[in-house]
Write a structure and sequence with these properties.
By secondary structure, the chain is α/β, with parallel strands linked by helices. The strands form 6 sheets. Strands 3, 4, 5, 6, 7, 9, 12, 13, 14, 15 and 16 form an 11-stranded mixed β-sheet that branches. The protein has a 10-stranded mixed β-sheet with strand order 22-21-20-19-23-26-28-29-30-31, with helices on both faces. The relative contact order is 0.12.
Length: 577
Amino acid sequence: MPQHPREGQGGRMGPVVMHTPDDLVRRFVRDGMRVHLTTTTGRPNALLYAMCRVFADRRSLTVSVASVHSSAHALALSGAVKHVTTCFLGDTYPLPRPCRLYSRLKEGIPFHAEVWSLLSHTQRLAAAASRLPYAVTTSLVGSQLPFATGESPPELTRLPGTPPALLVPALKPDVTFLHGVLADRHGNIVLCPPYGEGPHAAYAASQGVIATVERIVPDSVIAAMPEHVKVPGVKVIGLCEAPWGGHPQSLRCLRLAGLPDFYLDDYSFLAEISTACASPETAQAWYHRWVRNPDGHLGYLRLLGQDRLHALAGGSARPPAAGPPATPEENPCTEQENLIILAARGIVKLVRERGYDTILAGVGSAHMAAWTAGELLARQGIRTALLAELGFYGTTPDSGDPFLFSQRHADRSTMTAGIEQILGGVVGCSERSLGVVGAVEIDSTGSVNTAFLPDGRWLTGPGGANDVGTKSDIVVVAKASRKRYVPAVAHITTPGGRVQAVFSQFGSFTRVTRKDPFTLATWLPSCDDADSGVEPRELTLAHTRWSPPTRPVQAEAAPTGEERAILASLDPEGLYR
């Protein structure tokens, strides 16, 4: 690929400063390029949309991005992309679940894909940033990742030693898209934590960074905040100002240069995308309205309207209600409440017995269980740090906002860092870290599948669960059914060797040694009207395809008012419970 000239700005070399994201894409992106979309707590969505408009129906680009959800569904709907390297394809809001757009992913529809774990993806970028041909990872071991369609996945070399490690190829984009907070006209870019994958992709790009920022400011403003500059101007080839360029994802701005503290994820918009992508017609209608038809980024902002944007910047936007809010005493426990509370109890028990000091929360019922456990432990005087993979450490969740990666939680964290620090440095380097994850399929060895069903339909992918499950002890939180609790998973996304317990809506499953199968260890009598009077053996056979218990099963007490109140305070609108 030809190198792009950098134009002078005030006598110094600097990026080409243009008016719109579409101008940047037309100027710097060509058919056949490898384009990386940087993930912090959001994405460079204004540039993503512009790329979809400019390259629509050409199926000519190779894109890498940590996760394909919400606004990134435009990659599939535009026909611009032939191949995606990622860790997740599905929906994360309002619930983590598969998206119809990717059900035929194994057939290369809507594009071919290569799927990695979140930490190994980031480590590959870090290797490329230092111009190294390979990265070393202890993720992936014992799983069937990476997974690829249309071609064989890259060969991995197993290295000798303990723990087992793999040599994986560096991830080398031609250009990297990035949305930052501020920049000067020389291209020095300010980012605010949590950093997600951080600036690695900016350094990894062979040709350079194409960036949008909330505001381009005078040189003196950037010069006064060197601690916030994470991408130097020498790496940036193209730049434009694009307020709200990360929408519908969030952005933390720390009130720099007159910007707000943060703007939130647009929960209503995220839910609208998820609903729209349930059918081809409504998905295309969403794409035409929000991506193809608006007059570029400014047209997109006009369509959103100032009132909506003001609510996001002011922090007044809240997740839409899944049902009428109610105090716990007004209704009997739902299966979801039972699931989350039984899991929270089990986590508390493990922390007390084994001394875990950090709890990594995966998205969904898993993070609600982790948060509930964290509050129960705090009330018992036991200090643990709640983590989330994109860079949250020591989080006290903001009551009323159940979204795992909300900027409200960032403001209530002991530390905000990045994927490498959380999954690599904290989870990966401590024997006292406990992960809490979900599963679409799980077998009695503890192996978890979130890749695809036996009939080939795509699920979601590993995200960071594989990294957690290969580096630390974990528990699995998953509602039991005969389709989910299976004899053998269709794909090992996360190996089961470090699974300590599996929690369902009617009880918990444990094993004596790692070589033994999981069997029911505790149960909740009369957990559901349909199961009233049913014994543990019959519950296991009715709701799973696992062997019934052969040892005594301990009865669980019904969820208490305190437990239900804690969960309701964390999820007042009932998205997860």
